[in-house]
Amino acid sequence: MSEAWVTELVERTLTEDLTGGPPLPHAPDLAVRHDVTSSATIAATRFGTADLVARAPGVVAGLPVAARVFQRLAPGVTLTAGARDGDTVATGDVLLTVRGPVRALLAAERSALNIASRASGIATATRAWVEAVAGTGAVVLDTRKTTPGLRPLEKYAVRCGGGSNKRMGLYDVAMVKDNHVAAAGSVADAVALVRECAPSVPVQVEVDTVAQAAEAVAAGADFLLCDNMPPAVLREVVAVVAGRAELEATGGLTLGVAREVAATGVDFLSVGALTHSAPILDLALDLRAAG
């Protein structure tokens, strides 16, 4: 995640909560002027300490971004880390302690939790897949099936969980799918056209039969995306390809079959569910002292 992107995410996230109403006469400062409840019930001079706490076990991610949310609304806030991204935590563990103006802490609460909970949920789901294939040599990958606007955060969370990133966009790997083959005329023609247009970009071809895999390797593909192949067929592809291209299994994968698929000899398992279906990790902000 770039510094500029994190800054933009923090601003965009806070804007969802803190715009849309007029400044309150007794609380004109930007940080809390649209948090009606906190402005009405908490004195502007009141300081306090709050803990960001895990309500369930999992793997945490996004804590530095959550910290930035608090810093945006209370530049002088004191932050004490209780965990680091990638750590496995238990229910009740304190992940981050913040001290500052209570109004600002509560105004930042939901934005910070939304970011950290989403990222931690993805990291937790990823860790389960990584553990399922441990020792096989296969690497767990994400996909481009991410929440619009949150791709850098979600792919960062996959790395925190022990997985790896596939394509960040349509520019860093050329993925030749059936529609591209139909438009180009053949797999070989599609690969040749990509090589001519972007010679430095790796080329991956989607295949769903052993014959297609052999054709794609002969055409010079660097990677094969083996779509919805059962383990027996994957083993055939591994034998036919014989190390001439990297192999990625995808489609219909579940944790229950992950190890069996990884054991076929493929290099990667790509799992869209890491980002499109991972539940959040339940986190909360508990105000424990104020004065």
Automatic annotation (TrEMBL):
Domain spans labelled Quinolinate phosphoribosyl transferase N-terminal? 35-120
One GO MF term on file is: nicotinate-nucleotide diphosphorylase (carboxylating) activity
List cellular component terms (GO): cytoplasm
- Return the Gene3D superfamilies for the record: Aldolase class I, Quinolinate phosphoribosyl transferase, N-terminal domain
Task: Quote the EC number.
Answer: 2.4.2.19
| PANTHER family named among the record's database cross-references | NICOTINATE-NUCLEOTIDE PYROPHOSPHORYLASE [CARBOXYLATING]
Q: What is this protein called?
A: Nicotinate-nucleotide pyrophosphorylase [carboxylating]
Task: Supply the source organism for this entry.
Answer: Goekera deserti
Q: What is the organism lineage in this UniProt record?
A: Bacteria, Bacillati, Actinomycetota, Actinomycetes, Geodermatophilales
